[in-house]
Amino acid sequence: MKKVKNESQLLKKALSIGEQYAEKRGFAKFDSGTSNKIKIECIYRLLVQDKLITPLASNKEDGPSMKHKLVLWIQRQLPENHPLRE
């Protein structure tokens, strides 16, 4: 897995956008006490279900791989001139 520049900021952005997407799809809001690990897995599975990202191989579905997939997803969603894409 190749390290992505600004990965932590991109992950925060992906979680924020992913939560908004989940709410628009009719899912309940995450509680303030919900861990990032759970948020990452829920958002990843929702995006896979909606065919917005390709699923990981079943033996590669772990926390770091899901994070990486979300980072790559949000990176593609941002406009070309966005500071996080540099």
Explain how this protein is built.
The structure is a single chain. The chain has 86 residues and is an all-alpha fold. The chain has a domain at 35-76: Uncharacterised protein PF16691 family (Four Helix Bundle (Hemerythrin (Met), subunit A), Up-down Bundle). The chain is 55% helix and 0% strand. It has 3 helices and no strands. Helix 1 packs across helix 2 (36-49), helix 1 (7-24) crosses helix 3 and helix 2 packs across helix 3. The protein is globular, with a radius of gyration of 13 Å. Pfam families: DUF5062. This is DUF5062 domain-containing protein.
Mean pLDDT, as a whole number?
90
Order of helices and strands: HHH
The Rg value, from CA coordinates, equals 13 Å
Distance from N terminus to C terminus (CA atoms, Å) equals 19 Å
Unreliable stretches covering 5 or more consecutive residues: none
What is the structural class? mainly alpha
Which CATH first-tier class of the domain at 35-76 would you pick? Mainly Alpha
Q: Compute the number of helices.
A: 3
Pfam families: DUF5062
Protein name: DUF5062 domain-containing protein
Short description:
This protein is mainly α and about 90 residues long.
Sum up the structure in keywords.
mainly alpha; Four Helix Bundle (Hemerythrin (Met), subunit A); DUF5062; DUF5062 domain-containing protein; DUF5062_sf
